[in-house]
Design goal:
Elements (H helix, E strand, L loop, with lengths): L1 E2 L5 E2 L3 H4 L20 E3 L7 E3 L23 H9 L7 H11 L6 E4 L6 H12 L9 E4 L3 H14 L7 E4 L15 E4 L1 H9 L10 E5 L1 H5 L5 H10 L7 E6 L4 H10 L4 E3 L11 E7 L3 H10 L1 H4 L3 E5 L3 H13 L5 E3 L5 H12 L5 E4 L12 E6 L20 H8 L9 E7 L2 H14 L3 E4 L4 H12 L1
Parallel strand pairs: 5-10, 5-11, 6-8, 6-9, 7-8, 9-10, 12-17, 12-18, 13-15, 13-16, 14-15, 16-17
Antiparallel strand pairs: 1-2, 3-4
Helix pairs in contact: 3-4, 4-5, 6-8
This protein binds adenosine-5'-triphosphate.
Adenosine-5'-triphosphate (ATP) binds next to helix 4.
Catalytic activity: ATP + H2O = ADP + phosphate + H(+)
Protein name: RNA helicase
Family: Belongs to the DEAD box helicase family.
């Protein structure tokens, strides 16, 4: 395996091995002019620039190749073009030949947030399953029901011209007495998936593809690692299951486990200073204390609603408290966290996705993967912190760099502009923000809290 000029690892033989499954054709290609910078005039005050996402050679979205060259099945090509994709992004261009080659090989793939990882693994699942067999053949796990539902929407959209059948493995979705899932692709969260496999509702004997989205989170022993391993241990042994791990981040402590979990995998890796995209401008605001954070947030309300925005808090009770207070003061905001019940969570995220709500106050539950193109602002009301160990000194709390990268990645999707704003209010949060700045290698610029006009000007400039 060799590292190429860009620092990516690619086995020399892998691309050559790719076996086309359909005759290439361009008859379905959409009438999109790729070379033009595409300015989508938004109905909001600020226009969202769709800088031709794939033009800049250094951009993670750049690609010279076409989907045809990947030798995908006609029905899948149709699905891709129907979604408005004209060319593969860089991660898709690099990962797809490896993912689709035969015999199937494992993959550990890393690429910045919003660069199209989902399409890469969804296409792999769709091209490997046999639609004439009514049994699960590909399973995909994600850390939240919101993300599982979003992945499923991509499976359904991309598989629109196939006869694929799908099923969820998320809480409260299947009736208690459900038996025997016949869908070929099952997407869910690890707890429910384990339960359904154990109860033989999901028969995994024919599974050939196992995908972990947000894989570093799914494998982290402090998080979902144990449950994810349980699912893997129930998959058929002896036969080859292709294991696919994708994330924007793979911290060192998870990388070793990932290598064991997906042995002999092809790897696409990012360098430390490439972890986040440059189209997200990062700011911070000096607040005097906790109460002042609330006042500053309220003063930002107008800006928050120019497009859509997500406010991240460390705890559920903070999300509840500030959303109740803002609502009582006449502002329209929604709040979402893991303590709400399943149907309420679905309604809230759907309302936000459809633009009925413009401001979503939440916790880390949707820090990862959620793809809502209109989100042009993320506020870290509380900076993300690593889990505090019992008895540890609060002042020593370290920032959670990975969660930070994922949180700000909810904006700036696929080359769009976005801004993130961190609230700092004391020495400790200051120090934490400095650590984030150092770790990501990206500048975080100060914005005045007491000069609203200047603040608005700066922010609008960043969004243009
Ligand atoms: N080839 C393509 N052409 C145009 N748009 C694309 C293409 N591939 C993906 N997209 C769009 O880019 C957006 C981001 O893709 P996706 O959600 O897969 O990102 P991601 O890399 O999984 O991000 P995250 O790390 O945050 O999970 C989506 O809206 C998707 O529809």
């Amino acid at each position: 395996m060799e590292k190429d000029a860009d620092g990516f690892y690619t086995p020399a033989s892998a691309t050559a091995d790719a076996e086309p499954s359909a005759t290439p054709s361009d008859s379905n290609a959409p009438q999109v002019e790729d070379d033009k910078t595409d300015l989508i005039k938004s109905t909001f005050e600020v226009s969202v620039t769709l800088a031709d996402q794939q033009r800049d050679k250094d951009s993670p979205l750049y690609s010279v190749k076409t989907f045809e060259e990947l030798g995908l099945h006609q029905d899948l090509l149709k699905g891709i073009y129907d979604m408005g994709f004209s060319k593969p992004s860089k991660i898709q261009e690099r990962a797809l030949p490896l993912l689709l080659s035969n015999p199937p090989q494992n993959m550990i793939g890393q690429s910045q947030s919003g660069t199209g990882k989902t399409a890469a693994f969804v296409l792999t699942m769709l091209s490997r399953v046999d639609f004439s067999k009514n049994k699960p053949q590909a399973i995909c796990l994600a850390p939240s029901r919101e993300l599982a539902r979003q992945i499923m929407s991509v499976v359904v959209a991309m598989g629109k011209f196939t006869s694929v059948q799908t099923e969820y493995a998320i809480k409260d979705n299947l009736p208690k007495n459900a038996t025997n899932v016949t869908a070929q692709i099952v997407v869910g969260t690890p707890g429910t998936m384990t339960d359904l496999i154990r109860r033989k509702v999901v028969d995994v004997s024919e599974v050939k593809v196992f995908v972990l989205d947000e894989a570093d989170n799914m494998l982290d022993q402090d998080g979902l690692g144990e449950q994810t391993l349980r699912v893997k241990n129930m998959l058929p042994r002896g036969t080859q299951v292709q294991i696919i791990l994708f994330s924007a981040t793979f911290p060192d402590h998870v990388r070793n486990f990932a290598n064991k979990f997906a042995p002999n995998a092809n790897k696409i890796e990012l360098k430390r200073n490439e972890l986040s995209v440059d189209n997200i401008r990062q700011f911070y605001m000096d607040c005097r204390n906790e109460e002042h954070k609330y006042d500053v947030l309220v003063s930002l309300y107008h800006l928050l609603t120019i497009g859509q925005s997500i406010i991240f808090c460390q705890h559920r009770h903070t999300a509840d408290r500030i959303s109740q207070r803002m609502t009582a003061e006449g502002h329209k905001v929604a709040s979402l966290h893991g303590a709400k019940d399943a149907s309420e969570r679905d309604n809230i995220i759907d309302g936000f996705r459809e633009g009925r709500d413009k401001v979503l106050i939440t916790t880390n539950v949707i820090a990862r993967g959620i793809d809502i193109l209109q989100v042009n602002m993320v506020v870290n009301y509380d900076l993300p912190l690593l889990n505090e160990r019992p008895g540890s000194n609060k002042d020593d709390a370290r920032p959670d760099i990975e969660t930070y990268i994922h949180r700000i990645g909810r904006t700036g999707r696929f080359g769009r502009k976005g801004i993130s704003v961190n609230f700092v209010h004391d020495k400790r949060t200051w120090a934490q923000m400095e650590q984030i700045e150092q770790a990501t290698g990206k500048q975080i610029v100060r914005i005045e809290t007491n000069d609203l006009d200047e603040m608005e000007t700066q922010m609008k400039k960043a969004m243009k």
